[in-house]
Amino acid sequence: MTEWPKIEQPREKLRALGAAALNDAELLAIFLRVGVKGKSAVALAQDLLHHFGSLPRLLACTPEELTRIHGMGISKWSQIQAAYELVKRSLEEKLSENSIFSSPRCVREFLQAKCGKLPHEVFLCLHLDSRLHLIECQELFRGSLTHTAVYPREILKEALSRNASALIVAHNHPSGNPLPSEADQELTNMLSKALQLVDIPLLDHCIVSGSGFFSFSDAGLMNNDIN
Predict the structure, then answer these.
(1) CA neighbor of 135 nearest in space, from 192, 191, 97
(2) Fold entry, domain 6-85
(3) Measured distance CA(45)–CA(19) in Å, rounded
(4) Predicted TM-score (pTM) of this structure
(5) Could you tell me the strand order of the sheet in which 213-215 lies?
(6) 131-150: pLDDT as tens digits
């Protein structure tokens, strides 16, 4: 890679043009730093993306899966995971500083980063204060590939314990299809009615997949009025 023109080397390209100008393989190559015999860091990164099929799948891989690949050790896996965790924490901090209505894109990116790549279902609650800033993102339930048991009583209890003024709930579809099922719609209606009893509006129910996102609010399927 050092034989390439400097502007084509990932680090130099990043300095000259900014991170957005780099493709996935080039960004990944910066973390890998070096390739293996006969293969540059960029070529190795391309092989990794091809092996796992997508960037989300690579980010979700276990240490065992990554270290089976020639040239990849536990330190490389750790570096990638640490960088990804920083991204998630940065997005969460933005939500705690600004109203969720001022950064809907950030909400989507945060939820996709938080659970979009998981191989199992999780159910998240975003507890919001009176200014609609994030108090805490809490994982309440975890399930199998196709089902998560959700208990409204637990959701109400946790929201009240945090003095939440509003709530957004979210879960992921590991199958890849973010469209809501009939059970998802029934759960949304049930939660909305239950939360109304304690004056905590349910602002949205988001369904996330590795490459997709569905918002009940955006689809006009619930009332977002906090008053």
Answers:
(1) 97
(2) DNA polymerase; domain 1 (1.10.150)
(3) 16
(4) 0.69
(5) 134-142, 122-128, 166-172, 202-208, 213-215
(6) 999 999 999 888 765 556 77
